[in-house]
Amino acid sequence: MSTQKYPLIEKISFKDLFQKCKSEYSLARYKIAKEHLFVSDKTLQRLSDGEKEFDKDICKGMLDLIKRKSGGTSALFVSKMIEWYPELSGYATESEIREIITANLNGTASYDESLNSVTPRLSSIQFLQSCLDDEFKVKCVKMAYQTGWLWFDDRKRTNLLIHISKSGIPIQVIANPESVIKDIAYTMSDPAMLLRYMGFNETLATWHKYECAYKNIHLRISRYPILRKSLIVEFEDGSSKAIFGDYAYGSPVKYAPPYLQLANSDTSFEYYYNEFQYLWDKSVSYSKWYKSLPKPEEIIPPNDYLLLYPSHEIAAETHREWIYSALSIGENNEVKLRVNISNLEKISDPKTSIPCEYEYTGRLKSTGKHLFISLYDDAQQENITLTLFHRYPDNSRFFGIMTGLSPLGQPAAFKCACIGRSAVSRINFQALKKLLCSQNKDWNNTLMILEQRDINLFYSERIFYNGSREN
Predict the structure, then answer these.
(1) CATH class name, domain 303-463
(2) Would you give the DSSP letter of residue 140?
(3) Which architecture does CATH list for 124-291?
(4) I need a surface site. Which of 38, 68, 191, 385 has the fewest CB within 10 A?
């Protein structure tokens, strides 16, 4: 860029720059003067009113202040200046923009067609509004975004979207689901806006609500990552206009990304248009995509259970001679199994740690009718699986089959029961022993299986004492 000629931007003045800084960052004039520019309040006021000649140190101090307040990086500073003065959108470096602003403040900038011909960076709203104001009627609007959440974060954008749809203009929208874009989009996120971001699939659901409410909005879900945001407008005379902005790793797209504003007469237009059309043709409707999603995992409420199963020795009828294990279901279906606990009473006290011989950890998956639990012990290098019958919505007890290894390392399977902490004191151990050690009748004892009569007995009151367990 020439060091002698700078484009004249009439909006740029020290007063305008000062007012924008004061308003944007909620700074009082005296604080800007004394704490940031190190001049008197009166001097700053005279400079703002045009009563004092240009001061390069104060100008530099003001630009330094804006850079600090906008985030401290060149990209953030450039983005803020372009936001305030769209005429600067053709310039991407901090030094260029500082030189142009300084030249406009000290009076050395001048109008020159070659310098002032840079296409202003238009926002989506500005671009669409200019297309709606065109002499030719808009035929169709096409959009591609990773999610397009900004259309619902800004009321002006949302209202414009609704206005276009109600005008009978079709709007085609392509977006990505979380499974496709989550890791990529994370590298392009703006930490300062994390609380404003909508969830990926939540944004798609919002798009779908508008699709259902306004018949001219059509949403498609793409399994290919969208790495360029596209906004294409087609007119009834066959012409088209578009703006494109690249998403970039490590840099939020709003911070001065590569930017193109094209018409279909431009040689590059077909390249980007065909990319959009390819994504549209390969995408699916929201309903089809939603049906393909895995069903949400059912979460079992946290609880502690006494896990009982026949040992390799003969199980006694009284509870004092059983070998007990404690199975704990925690948050988000995390499971811990402590084998051979030394004190049955401690299972009833959630605040007491439970000494045990072995400890396994894992997770459960619920299908409503069954619980599938997979557990692993690093020390023993052993997996244990439990398949438990779940009489929904009763979470107080479960009945099923446990597989693991015998003390000699042989694969083994046996019936087991999980009794919730609150019900432990009522267990009828004699009835439970008969149930867990009973042979199969329907299958002539050729299968390890839970027969319906056993399930019915387990979930009946006969599995409990009528009174205390001493009866």
Answers:
(1) mainly beta
(2) E
(3) 2-Layer Sandwich (3.30)
(4) 191
